[in-house]
Amino acid sequence: MIVAIDGPAASGKGTLARRLAEHYRLPHLDTGLLYRAAARTLIDEGRRLDDVAAAVKAARGLALIDFDEVALRGREMGEAASVVAALPEVRAALVETQQRFAKRPGGAVLDGRDIGTVICPDATVKIFVTASPETRAQRRALELRSRGEPSNYAKVLGDILHRDRRDSSRSTAPLKPATDALILDTTDLDVEATFREALRLVETQLDAKDATQLRSAVP
Prior knowledge:
Number of domains: 1
Helix content: 55-70%
Distance between the termini: 26 Å
Number of helices: 10
Structural class: alpha/beta
């Protein structure tokens, strides 16, 4: 079973994906960390974030384990990752890596911005997680504050709106729901309510697929 979780920044997709992976005992990949790690490499090497050759080299050199999440989290790294992720060559370099992860025995849960549309178009279940920009800004500000980072709400909201525009308008793999994705709006849901609703969506989708397979097997 492959579960594809997509959505914009601070929509709650990462937390949800981890919970679903734990529930179904599947490996989980936060694909956003790949772009953050590539951006971190460029920054550490003193390279420009739009240096295509250096960015592709950094992306191809990534492993899917031992990410230093503390160093990769935060508003600044999120913005840097968004710049790197907009490079078509970088996205192309990481497609196969993500698809290999998804094809692990038993399946996997992947979250990102193009999982259901590009990486795993045949995923068993696709969920597009969203929330209002204001709600997402509040969540991100609280997250930053919990880590002791500056958390000016107006600044955070501006960053989120800017990232939304860049992610949605890029030429390669723009942020958008897959045509068969289930939409989950978390604006008025807390973490537990979001998880319960996602479980309902997954189980409903699995039941529907089972029913379709049974009907197609009937002579």
